[in-house]
Write a structure and sequence with these properties.
4-stranded mixed beta sheet, about 450 residues, mainly alpha, Flavocytochrome B2, Chain A, domain 1, 2 domains, two-stranded parallel sheet
């Protein structure tokens, strides 16, 4: 493995700028930055340096929306969190540099907890020195082989045992498990350099996401980066875009819908219809359409070709044994089970937490208020792809999942020092809390709808 990049976060007092450097105040930065407005500057601050990213937005690999959601803010910690090869990224940043913060200006800007962030940056430096951001390639190769074996076992089960009800059910289970493990593996590949050469990591990510799962790798990168940047922030986190079309989420947003007399759905019953709508139908309906829509819209032709290869392979491989009606039932069952698992596992960490408008909080605060953990056990770790450690994953997105449990005591210590609640629950409690939170927000909507 290549040596870990030294942290570029500035942990010491900043050096005085040269006399030729243009200096900015936070008032000036925020007054001259307005999301999407023509003629306005699109400024970001990284390590006290001010960058105008207007010309770079559309070329940003993580999409323009993630940059737009941070205009006028200090993004030093987000920059550290998302980029593995910081030296390469700085080559793109350098031409965009327009100045620095004035010496009398805070490094973080308004509404940020400077003491918390300084302690967090020290923690990140400690974690880097401990080597906890270095992935174990052998671990991920084992995961990859596990996926291929499950996929092969699903096909071999039909070959040796036929297509009666029991073998059909076993093959559905094996194929679903293969897809579930592939979902988490592509998630690993999308967040960090699992292998020494980034090119191989990129190609393997595209192979797993497009060919093994039938979805666009670039589509996933766009949506997931936005989710991590501003989790549970309305209009900035695509994972909660189901508000208000299907569900009323969060206390503030639910009351707001009620006051406006908005009623797309009977939200006071959303805890009842959640289980048989979003979990089983997200993948077979919305995601299946949306991934192709975005891929065509943004001309991801390589992704589209690889996605089509998934469907060709799937229907040829299983078409050897199943008639067309049984084949479609098989495909839809796998997609429904995969979707149900994904929604329950991914949303147990987020829906019960704070969902609101972006309040321009510091990196640590926004991640902790939007995430919670589920108890550590061999089953929970395997079943959730180690994302029962959602707090650690959101604070350190490029940390390999086999190291999450090692950093838990350090994160708990940070939270205790600053009086921040570190939430961790049993698995079934986390599932139940999804329904409880939906019921609470639905009742808040109904009360506001009827009486305000």
């Amino acid at each position: 493995m290549a040596p870990q990049q030294k942290s570029s976060v500035e942990l010491v007092p900043h050096r005085p700028p040269s006399s030729a450097t243009r200096l900015f105040t936070w008032d000036e930065i925020q007054a001259n930055t307005k999301q999407g407005a023509p003629g306005r500057e699109n400024w970001l601050v990284v390590g006290r340096k001010v960058y105008d990213v207007r010309s770079f937005c559309q070329r940003h690999p993580g999409g323009s929306r993630i940059l737009m959601s941070h205009f006028g803010e200090d993004v030093t910690d987000a920059f550290e969190a998302f980029h593995v090869n910081k030296s390469l990224v700085k080559k793109y940043l350098n031409p965009l540099l327009i100045g620095e913060l004035a010496p009398d200006q805070s490094s973080l800007g308004p509404s940020k907890n400077e003491s918390l962030i300084m302690d967090f940056r020290e923690l990140r430096t400690t974690i880097e020195k401990m080597g906890l951001l270095k992935p174990n390639s052998y671990f991920f190769m084992a995961v990859f082989l596990h996926i291929l074996l499950l996929d092969a076992a699903s096909w071999l089960n039909f070959l040796y045992f036929g297509t009666s009800l029991l073998p059909f059910t076993v093959s559905v289970a094996l194929c679903t498990m293969s897809h579930i493990q592939a979902s988490w593996f592509q998630h690993d590949l999308g967040h960090l350099s699992v292998f020494q050469k980034p090119k191989w990591n990129h190609l393997l990510h595209k192979f797993v996401m497009c060919h093994l799962l039938g979805a666009s790798a670039n589509w996933w990168t766009l949506l997931h980066s936005q989710h991590h940047a501003k989790p549970n922030c309305h209009s900035k986190d695509p994972d909660i875009d189901m508000h208000p079309v299907l569900f009323a989420l969060g206390k503030t947003l639910s009351v707001e819908l009620g006051v406006k007399k908005t009623k797309y759905m009977p939200y006071n019953h959303q805890h009842k219809y959640f289980s048989f709508t979003l979990p089983p139908l997200l993948f077979p309906t919305f995601f299946q359409y949306h991934t192709f829509y975005i891929a065509f819209k943004k001309n991801y032709w390589v992704d589209i070709a690889c996605m089509l290869s998934f469907f060709i392979r799937f229907f040829i491989v299983y078409g050897c044994f199943l008639e067309i009606k049984s084949l479609l039932v098989f495909f839809f069952l796998v997609r429904m089970l995969e979707s149900s698992w994904f929604v329950w596992v991914s949303q147990m960490n987020h829906i019960p937490m704070t969902i609101d408008y972006d309040k321009n909080l510091d990196w640590v605060s926004i991640q902790l208020q939007a995430t919670c953990n589920v108890d550590h056990s061999w089953f929970n770790d395997w079943f959730t792809g180690h994302l029962n450690f959602q707090i650690e994953h959101h604070l350190f997105p490029t940390m390999p999942r086999h190291n999450y449990w090692k950093v838990v005591p350090l994160v708990k210590s940070l939270c205790a020092k600053h009086g921040i609640e570190y939430k961790c629950k049993p698995l079934l409690t986390a599932f139940a809390d999804i329904l409880r939170s939906l019921k609470d927000s639905g009742e808040l909507w109904l009360d506001a709808y009827l009486h305000k």
